[in-house]
Write a structure and sequence with these properties.
- It is a single chain.
- Helices cover 76% and strands 2% of the residues.
- By secondary structure, it is mainly α.
- The chain has two domains: 391 residues, Up-down Bundle (Sodium/glucose cotransporter), CATH 1.20.1730; 100 residues, no CATH class.
- The strands form two sheets. Strands 1-2 form a two-stranded antiparallel ribbon. Strands 3-4 form a two-stranded antiparallel sheet.
- One of its GO terms (molecular function) is L-proline transmembrane transporter activity.
- Belongs to the sodium:solute symporter (SSF) (TC 2.A.21) family.
- It is a multi-pass membrane protein.
C-alpha cells in the first residue's frame, strides 16, 4: 500500500481524535451533556449523525455486494429503508423529543419507558436495558470485526492489530467527547460517505463509456440484472413474500436506540423538519450511490474480464483500481467512517444504559454528575474490551446473531415506541408484554427447526414481520383488556400533545 494512502487514513484518524478533544473542551459537565449533548444538536448534525450511525459498513460493502449478485431486485431493501427512515422522522422524532423532556427529562430509551408508564417496579427499565446492552455489545463486536478485516485485506496488517486500531480510535473520541463528539464525528463521517458514494459510481460510469457501455456489459450476462422483479443470482422471479421481507426492513427504524436517541438530542422540536429534509436527502443519494456502485462494478468487472471472489469488496476493488492512492485512501476512510460511526453510537448508547439504567437506578441514586460521567467513560472502555474479545473469534456464531439484531430491536422496541407516543390508554403490562413477545418471536422465527417449501422460517419471511405484528397485537389486546388508572401518565401525555400543537402552530405562523 503506497504512502499516500496511509497519509489519507492518518489524516482521517487525526481529524476524528481532534473532534474528540474539541468536544471534551466544549462539553457540559453534567450527565445530560455527556450522553445527549445537552439536547443542543443542530438539524444538520442530527440528520447526518442519525444517517451515518444507521448505515455502518453495510452501506459501502453489504448493499453494493447484494446489488452485484442479484441486480436491481436488491433495491427493494433500499426502498423499504428510505420509507422507514422518512416515517421515523414524521411519527417518532417530534413526539419523542418532547416526551423525553416533559416526562422527567429522560436521557435513555429505558429511562423514557419507565417515565412514560410511571413504572415503579423498574421491570420495563431492566428488561429493555438488558436487551440494549446484550445486542449492542454484539453489534459493536461485529463492527470491530469489520474494521479488523478491512485492515487485514486492504493494508496487509495483522487482523488483531486492525481490531485495536479501529476500536482504539473510536473509544478515544467517544470516551472524552461523549455524545457531542460522537455526533460531530458522525456528521463528518456522513459527509465522507456521501462524497465517496457519489464519486465512485460517477468515475466508473465515465470509464465504462456511459450508460450505453453499462447496458452492453450487463447484456452479455443477463438482462435480469436490470429487472426489479427477478433475482439475477438464481434467475427466479422475486416472490411477493420476498418483496414484503425486503420492504419490512423499514419497520426496524422505529426501534433502533442508536438512531432515535438523536431525536431526543436535537435542540428543538421546531428543527426536526429541517433535519428530516437533510437526512432523507442524504439517505436517498447515498443509497442510490451504493446500489450504483454494485451494478456498475459488475459491469466494469465483466467488461474487463476480471474476477471477484467476494462481491462485498467491490467498493474497495474499484477505489484502489481507478483512483490515485491519495484519493483511494480517502475512499477507504469512507468505509472506516461507516464502520466507526456505528460503533461509536452503539458504545455510547450501551454506556448510557449501564450508567443511567443500572448504576444510578439501582446502586447510586444520589451519585453526582461527575461520578456518573466517570462511570459512563468506564462503561465505554469495558464494552469495547468485551467487543474486542468477542471479535477475536472470527467464526463465532455471534456474528450470525448480530445480523438479526435489527429485527430484534425493531420488533421489541418498534411497536412499543409507536404506541407509547400515540396512545394515552396504553398500559404498563401491555408495554412489557409487547416488548417480550416481539423479541421472543424474532428469536423463535430464527431458530425453530421448521421449514416452508424447503426454506427456514427466517429465509422464507424476514423475522421482523411476524415479530412486529405479534408485538403490536399484544399491545392492542392487553391495553383494551386493561385500563390506564394512573392519572399522572394521562396528564403527561396530554401535556406532550399540547406542547406539540404549540410547536406546530409556531412553525406554521413563522412560515
Amino acid at each position: 500500500m503506497e504512502a499516500a494512502t496511509f497519509l489519507s487514513l492518518g489524516l482521517y484518524f487525526l481529524a476524528m481524535l481532534g473532534i474528540g478533544v474539541y468536544s471534551f473542551k466544549q462539553a457540559n459537565t453534567d450527565v445530560e451533556g455527556y450522553m445527549l449533548g445537552g439536547r443542543n444538536l443542530s438539524p444538520k448534525v442530527t440528520a447526518l449523525s442519525a444517517g451515518a450511525s444507521d448505515m455502518s459498513g453495510w452501506m459501502l460493502m453489504g448493499l453494493p455486494g447484494a446489488m452485484y449478485l442479484s441486480g436491481l431486485s436488491s433495491a427493494w431493501i433500499a426502498i423499504g429503508l428510505v420509507i422507514g427512515a422518512y416515517l421515523n422522522y414524521i411519527l417518532v422524532a417530534p413526539r419523542l423529543r418532547v416526551y423525553t423532556e416533559v416526562a422527567n427529562n429522560a436521557i435513555t430509551i429505558p429511562d423514557y419507558f419507565e417515565n412514560r408508564f410511571n413504572d415503579k417496579s423498574h421491570i420495563l427499565r431492566i428488561v429493555s436495558s438488558i436487551v440494549i446492552v446484550l445486542f449492542f455489545t454484539l453489534y459493536t463486536s461485529s463492527g470491530v470485526v469489520a474494521g479488523g478485516k478491512l485492515f487485514e485485506t486492504s493494508f496487509g496488517l495483522n487482523y488483531e492489530l486492525g481490531l485495536y486500531i479501529t476500536a482504539g480510535v473510536v473509544v478515544a473520541y467517544t470516551l472524552f467527547g461523549g455524545f457531542m463528539a460522537v455526533s460531530i464525528t458522525d456528521f463528518v463521517q456522513g459527509c465522507i460517505m456521501f462524497i465517496a458514494l457519489v464519486l465512485v459510481p460517477v468515475v466508473v460510469l465515465i470509464d465504462l463509456g456511459g450508460w450505453q457501455g453499462v447496458t452492453q456489459s450487463l447484456g452479455t450476462l443477463d438482462g435480469q440484472y436490470l429487472n426489479m422483479f427477478r433475482d439475477a443470482s438464481n434467475g427466479q422471479a422475486v416472490s411477493t413474500i420476498a418483496i414484503i421481507s425486503m420492504l419490512s426492513w423499514g419497520c426496524g427504524y422505529f426501534g433502533q436506540p442508536h438512531i432515535i436517541v438523536r431525536f431526543m438530542a436535537i435542540r428543538s422540536v421546531n428543527d426536526i423538519k429541517t433535519a428530516q429534509t437533510i437526512g432523507i436527502s442524504w439517505m436517498v443519494v447515498a443509497i442510490t450511490g451504493a446500489l450504483a456502485t454494485g451494478l456498475l462494478g459488475l459491469a466494469y468487472v465483466t467488461q474487463h474480464g476480471s474476477q471477484m471472489s467476494d462481491p462485498e469488496t467491490i467498493f474497495i476493488y474499484l477505489s484502489q483500481l481507478l483512483f490515485h492512492p491519495l484519493i483511494g485512501g480517502f475512499l477507504l476512510a469512507a468505509i472506516l467512517a461507516a464502520i466507526m460511526s456505528t460503533i461509536s453510537s452503539q458504545l455510547l448508547v450501551t454506556s448510557s444504559s449501564l450508567t443511567s439504567d443500572f448504576y444510578q437506578a439501582f446502586f447510586r441514586r444520589d451519585a453526582s454528575q461527575h461520578e456518573l460521567i466517570i462511570v459512563g467513560r468506564i462503561s465505554v472502555v469495558l464494552v469495547a474490551l468485551v467487543a474486542i474479545y468477542l471479535a477475536y473469534d472470527r467464526d463465532s456464531s455471534i456474528l450470525s446473531l448480530v445480523s438479526n439484531a435489527w429485527a430484534g430491536f425493531g420488533a421489541a422496541f418498534g411497536p412499543l415506541i409507536l404506541f407509547s407516543l400515540f396512545w394515552k390508554r396504553m398500559t404498563l403490562i401491555s408495554a412489557i408484554s409487547g416488548m417480550l413477545v416481539g423479541a421472543a418471536t424474532v428469536l423463535l422465527w430464527i431458530y425453530l427447526p421448521v421449514t416452508i417449501n424447503g426454506q427456514t422460517l427466517s429465509a422464507w419471511l424476514y423475522e421482523i414481520v411476524p415479530g412486529f405484528i405479534l408485538s403490536s397485537l399484544t399491545i392492542v389486546v392487553l391495553t383494551l383488556l386493561s385500563e390506564q388508572r394512573d392519572n399522572s401518565v394521562i396528564k403527561t401525555f396530554e401535556k406532550v400533545q399540547t406542547t406539540l400543537n404549540d410547536s406546530i402552530n409556531r412553525v406554521e405562523k413563522n412560515s
